[in-house]
Amino acid sequence: MEIAIIGCGLIGKKRANSLRKEDNIAVVCDTKEAIAKSFSQTYQVPYVVDWQEVANYPVDAVVIATTHNTLAEISHYFLQKNIHILVEKPAARNWQELKPVYDTYLAKKQDGVVARVGFNHRFHPAMLKAKEILSDPSVGENMFIRGRYGHGGRIGYDKEWRAKPQVSGGGELLDQGMHLIDLSRWYFGDFNKVQGIAQTFYWDMPVDDNAFLTLQSGTGQVSQLHVTWTEWKNLFSLEIYTRNVKLHIEGLGGSYGTERLAYYHMKPEMGPPDTLIYEYPGADQSWQREWLDFVAATEGKASVGGTLADALQALQIVKTVYEQNPQIKLD
What tens digit of pLDDT does each residue of 120-155 get? Predict the structure, then answer.
């Protein structure tokens, strides 16, 4: 595939390093010329600073890894040109921005155009193993999820683009919260009742640095989530409870600690459960797995990656929580 990468920051680099050997980067783009030039020199490819100029190059797919305020606009532009897109989450600043992109995609989908959203957490080995386990009917009915995800920021975090609502569209709820919402939906399906608190406790910013959510499905399953930019030791913890099983995923590698999945299976007589621990040390391969899944989708094969519909549903949950917390000023 001939690939364009728009946004040459940390995530753009991760995406470039995740391509297959047979893929080719045709052009890269960043509005900051020094960053675009450095990126292009690393990969020995042309660069531009105006993302619309990418359309002058013959590309099969565009990876969109910009700040939130341009994700939807760029996605819409290339979908209209029948070019596949992989856009980073949250795919837009809000539900209203993404809806017309989704509508265009529905019209283009019949032509074989593929749009995926960068929910790479689905492709961590512990997440995939949990999905496999939950597909076994012996685990029993789904009951509830408890998730926590956070980091502590860094000096000057409240001055970066994520703290500016006109650029980010929201705070931690829209950042790491989108991953936990997506994983909850991936495992349990849709949630139609939403209660949440979005609040700023620590950082001097108009957006939220913590969010607490309770989601409930039409059949009673619950997901209780907390995402935070005040977790002074980085943390990822996702507990999934069914009638017969508890799955506990911890760590994402790196500063979050070794990724592991604890599988607890209740015995008929109850008491201490049968326990199996899976550990996944080593480098994070979720980006490579997600890219292979994206390629499979463009070839008409089965795919489990996040879709625009998934992002739209997650953004609807975010929208509901922000409406419940008018003290968070996003205008």
Answer: 999 999 999 999 999 999 999 999 999 999 999 999
User: Which residue type, as a one-letter code, is found at position 54?
Assistant: V
CA distance 283 to 285: 6
| Secondary structure (3-state) at 174 | coil
Between the two ends of the chain, the Cα-to-Cα distance in Å is 40
Q: Name the region of 13 (left: φ>0; alpha: ψ -120 to 50; beta: rest).
A: alpha
Q: What is the C-alpha to C-alpha distance for residues 169 and 120, in angstroms, rounded to an integer?
A: 21
Q: At what angle do helices 308-324 and 95-109 cross, to 10 degrees?
A: 160
The angle subtended at Cα 248 by Cα 246 and Cα 252, nearest 5°, is 160
Q: How crowded is residue 194: how many other Cβ atoms within 10 Å of its Cβ?
A: 18
**How many whole angstroms separate alpha carbon 188 and alpha carbon 190?**
7
Q: Give the DSSP per-residue string, 125-172.
A: HHHHHHHHHHTSGGG-SEEEEEEEEE----TTGGGSGGG-HHHHSSST
pLDDT digits (tens, 9 = 90+) for 235-256: 999 999 999 999 999 999 999 9
In a 13 Å sphere around the CA of 287, the CA atoms on its Cβ side amount to 16
- State the virtual CA torsion across 188, 189, 193, 194 in degrees, nearest 10: 80
